[in-house]
Amino acid sequence: MLSIEIIKNMFPDSFYRRGLQYYHQFRVEQLSNSEKDGHWTAKVAGSKLYNVEVDIFEDEFFYNCTCSAYEEYQSCKHCVAVLLEIANKLGEKSTVNKLKVSETNTPLFSDGKEEQQIKSEDSLSQLSTNLIDLFAEDDFESTTSTIGEPIKVEYSLKPDYNQANGTLFTVEMKIGIERLYVVKNLKELLDYIENKKEYYFSKSFSYDPYLHSFHKEDLEIFQLLAKINKSETFFNSRSAWNISTKQKGITLPPLFADELISLLHERNCKLQNGDEEFNHFKWTSEKLPFTFSLIQEEENYLLELQKSSLVEYMSKYGYMLVDNAVYKLSDQQQQVMHRINNSIDLESTTAIPIKQEDIGLFLSHVVPSLEMICNVEMSPEVRSSITNPPLVAKLFLEIDIVRITAKLEYHYGEDIILPFNEENISNQEQILIRDVKKERKIMKLIELSSFKFNGVDLYLEDDDDIFTFLYDILPKLEKIVSVFSTGEVSPLLNREQIKPEIQLDLQTNANYFEVNFDFTDVNQNDIQQIIKSIIEKKRYYRLQDGSYIPLEEDTFHPIGDLFRELNIAPEAVNSGKLTLPNYRSLQVEELVSRNRGVHYNKAFEKLIADIKKPSKSNYPLPKTLNADLRDYQIVGYQWLRGLSYYHFGGILADDMGLGKTLQAIAFLLAKWEENSASAQPSLVVSPASLVYNWQNEFKKFAPNLKVKVIQGSKSERENLINDIENCDVLITSYPLVRQDFDLYNEHEFSTLILDEAQAIKNHMTKTARAIKTIRKSNCFALSGTPIENSLDELWSIFDAILPGFFPNKKTFGSLSQQQISRMSRPFILRRLKKDVLKELPDKIETVHTSELTKEQKELYLGYLEKIQSEAALAMSTNGFQKNRMKILAGLTRLRQLCCHPSLFIENYEGESGKMNQLLDMVDNALENKQRILIFSQFSSMLKIIHTQLSNKGIEPFYLDGNTPSSKRVEFAERFNNGEKEIFLISLKAGGTGLNLPGADTVILYDLWWNPAVEEQATGRAHRMGQKKVVQVFRLITNGTIEEKIFSLQQKKKELIENIIHPGETMFSSLTEQEIRELLSV
């Protein structure tokens, strides 16, 4: 009967152990049998499916498999696995269970139900088992047992000549335990070791990864050999190497040679050299064990070579194989050895004859190289005849009309060698050893100088070549050669280097400054030509006296940059002086500041400090300003004052919410205080939605200024503009400037302020053209986004604030971004909230005022008149309490009209001033990468806002009282994670319980009576987790009940309810007097 003992005895231990492992991994599939004749068939899953057949006849067993191991050894693990499966089927549990526990970690057999369940598992389960088996085998160290019986390894290094690659080493191996077996296919063995497979050597010995182990040092060698094998396999079809042609060994490529030979040197490795085989080899970087002996034979000389007969130069490695030693040569030694190998047959050559006339050169050139690789001896006769004085090289220079002539001499004691002439002055009785290295350095520099030789003279006659020699080559030659020159050459060599001096002078009460160029001892007539040469990036300029000015020095570069960037011709320089408009002063200063020889007059120094360091300026703050400026706002004010003083314009580009409006008002007020009697009025142009916001800001911060808003019909506006003498500041909108530009052209303004100046970013629009026709002393732009889409927008704004500063539109397009940035930087002041975070409160609150549209105003005034009449009647007849709810309902209607008339008026097709303002604010905020919460107490208002945003392609989150609780949390998390930029929230739904630190901007579309409710709304963003300053905007409609609500809100600090929703406690707390104030009755 089939039993485990029988199966174990039928197979080698290695096959049995692997077969047992395959059995436990359930790799045996489709096992079937014929009960009549005992014939069994099965498939075993290995690297592919193998077919196994088994015949059982009482006590005889026959089996075969389709795998390669069976074909070679008539035995394999697949057969073991199938036989174990058959034993299981036959029910030999008692016998099988006699296996030691150490042979397996899991029971070999299970009951029938469990086995059936396992066999029916999905093939994916089998896949996971296979993957575990495969990836458990990473490399030699992890796949090879370290606790089994140790295997001895003997290596052999054998030189093998290959016609394509010369002589290369081949590594061969023997392994075994008691007896060593030759590895007939090293690559195959390495593959078996890596893949944890048994390798058959003979009936007496097979390598079994589960029974045998290798020393750590041998595993390291195996890993390197495997790496060589893999790289060779990869490159074999596309490389000239194709090196390992013999299965018995692996040919060693140069890339791995040093590493592998170092490892083999420490192990049991034999070395073959010719017919000799050495049990160990020497691995060294010492000089070669050769001796060259130089002796004299009559009048000539002989170089004898004493060496071993076993010599092989392995050029691909840079090794010399001598007897039982491998010498590793340095790069220099390899160069020497390569020349020797190409000239001498090292195996047969024993002596080299040298002629008498060649001995000096041989000693100078050849012997020093030979001494680098081996020992060189000289006979006493040779050594006594050698002289070795130091080399003193001399170079004689003289000028001949338009060329420089040179003569080179090598002096060795009394011997003089003329390298460009055959005639030498030397002592024929002595052998002169020349300083070959130094001579080569000198000749290389002479060759780089482009000298010409006509058989007699060594000369230069081209200006470029002369300059290169004098200023590039000669300083290097002077370190190793003694230079002697005639008087005509000396001025060219000894002239002190000219360093340009630049003086920048700002003229008082003028709109220009001067750039003065001074080149020491250079005629003024030469300055234009010198500058022209600098612009053209020439290496030098030759003066009339023949001397050279080298122009590649750093001190000349700023001059070239100045003329090239400003596109100025050198002819613009008159008597060493260049005149430029003042607005070029900062650009010029930055261009020439790298020159150490730049100087400024005091007026120019003040200009630079005022513009570049406004925090150091001390222009007095306006006395009547009704505000305390923060430090950064004072800096902005000083910057505006400095630019204005020099008649410059600029762009105040602070982040939204940092107070650009306040800084501009402070600036205008200061100018008015200084010249209140004679000052021309200033003009502020803003988007229509911000006109009244400016008016209110002036009332708040500069009440002493007479401010006039240009509004009404064409004739009304004309009358307002013509009454300019009775006004300090005019405020209008971009659309009205476009319509009234002819009226403005009749007047001149002290300062023009362009708020949200991106409105003129397109220079082709009528609005931009109209703005640029307005006459003014200064023009300043306020914009957090002066560039929205392209640099052309910046050009258009600068065309308004500093006309002529940038070149024409076409030329501007060719400027680099770096150049544009450098030019515009002094005229743009931008601070971000994060930059001035320490100065800012963690929450900035701002009121924005809008104007009712014409349609809105008509509706509002009609409703207001009706409510006022009803309220007045009720109060005069003591019927206030009876009519309270009706009056409060009327207040609600007025409030809704301010928001948007369509809230309760069907089919309203007009616009809302506040809605237009909101959309402008959203555009600006999104351009500044801000994320917004918009609150309204009306969910119907939020829906109108949602529609308007959707029409602009903006999809916000939306939350009102109908939003499920789960969605509230989901929307908040998504918004805080960066999804979408706007969140619309109704007061009742989102005033509490939401955490939205992902927002940094809060817009309160409509006001609430209760300040605490507003605080709850702004608190959605201004809370734990918020890392930015939160900007809060309250939108109020000018001249409406909203202004009075806000005023009452500021006075009344007690808890009050919002009147917008009737029935809440606010209505009972409003007094009759408060309602009178609201309705002006």
From TrEMBL:
Domain Helicase ATP-binding: from-to ranges: 641-804
Domain Helicase C-terminal residues, every copy: 917-1071
PROSITE patterns per UniProt: HELICASE_ATP_BIND_1, HELICASE_CTER, ZF_SWIM
Keyword Lipid metabolism: no
The entry's keywords: Hydrolase, Metal-binding, Zinc, Zinc-finger
Signal peptide span: none
Any one GO molecular-function label of the UniProt entry: ATP binding
Pfam families referenced in this protein's UniProt entry, alphabetically: Helicase_C, SNF2-rel_dom, SNF2_assoc
Protein name, as recorded: Helicase SNF2
